[in-house]
Amino acid sequence: MGHGHDHGGHATATGRHRGVLIGALGISLAVFAIEVAGALITGSLALLADAGHVLADAGGVALALGATLLAARPASGKHTFGWARAEILAAAINGLVLAGMGVYVFVEGVRRLIEPAEVAPGGMALFGLIGLLGNLAGVALLYRARKASLNMRGAFLEVATDTVTSLGVLAAAAVIALTGYTRADAVVSVLIGLIIAPRAVRLLRDAANILLEAAPHDVDLDAIRNHITGLDHVVGVHDLHVLTVTSGLPVLTAHVVVDDSCFHDGHAPQLLDAMQACLAGHFDVEHSTFQLEPVGHAGHEHPTHT
Fold first, then answer.
1. In whole angstroms, what is the distance from residue 139 CA to residue 154 CA?
2. Which of 6, 29, 109, 139 could cross-link 189 (Cys pair, CB 3.0–4.6 Å)?
């Protein structure tokens, strides 16, 4: 007994903003190329670190775009939810790239603190300003779509942080120009590494929770249980599971014990409608599967069911 749901072939949260991602990718690649050229010309590690950060961001956006193409593929007998979870795999890979970049920048920055290098502050400021303007354009492009999915949030945070690090590059250039303290370039590089690391950890943690099928952080299982058991004719709920297939697609399954009379007077379908309406209205869970059981069915349940 249940209602059918089409789990595949729909536009995912990230897929609906594909045009925004394409624009952000173009901006990131342009900023990366300009900052690499600037780093080679001026000798600035901070510019190179910022360019590396931008490249990681561009790679994350490219992964998200590729994932949306996979996520749009229809469901099949083997992949019953389609390829929607490919977006989460992209987010995990993006987190790993960011973590590696953060470690590299931090280590190289420490080395430059010990052995400072010559830096041209004028050129460093010019290329840093170009990078700042590009990052601001990316922030404006991604701002409205930042809450649509995990990948969109990651893309926005990356570009927003690039904006902050570009300001750091400009500050370092100013310090070097005014005081001749070339270690300012290395200091900013170390700070960029420290900024990258916690963002990478958060992105990896959120992706891992979805891949490990943990309950979404904004879903209260006790509240769901109380809502369902509060419906007429419901005796109890067990084997309750909530997981996220991809951003914006939570799925719930549960065994619901109901009065035996529901199976004789035709009330079971209306009860099923009430439970699904309750979940959609109170918890934004549109995809749910319920196994309705009579009171006497408890003896047939697997002992691990709770």
1. 12
2. 109
Which residues are CB-neighbours of 190 under 8 A, at least 6 positions away?
Answer: 105, 106, 109, 110, 113
Beta carbons of 16 and 134 less than 8 angstroms apart? no
Pull the structure tokens for residue 71.
Answer: 């996520």
DSSP letters along 56-109, please?
HHHHHHHHHHHHHHHHTSPP-SS-TTTTTTHHHHHHHHHHHHHHHHHHHHHHHH
Assess contact for 232 and 226: CB atoms under 8 A: no
Dihedral (Cα; 140, 144, 145, 149), 10-degree rounding: 120
219-to-152, 176, 242, 282, 284 alpha-carbon distances in Å: 21, 51, 8, 10, 9
Tokens of 73: 């593929």
Quick one: pLDDT at residue 179? 93
- State both tokens at 92: 């995990």
Q: What pLDDT score does 296 carry?
A: 64
Please tell me the predicted confidence (pLDDT) of residue 17: 64
Mean pLDDT by 10 residues, the chain (306 residues): 44 62 87 91 88 77 69 62 70 81 83 86 92 88 71 74 85 93 90 80 82 74 83 82 74 84 78 81 76 71 53
Q: In this structure, what token pair is assigned to residue 163? A: 């904006």
Angle at which helix 121-142 crosses helix 45-71, to 10 degrees, equals 20
Task: Decide if 65 contacts 17 (C-beta within 8 A).
Answer: no
The angle at the Cα of 212, spanning 276 to 223, to the nearest 5 degrees, equals: 35
Structure tokens at 68: 């949306």
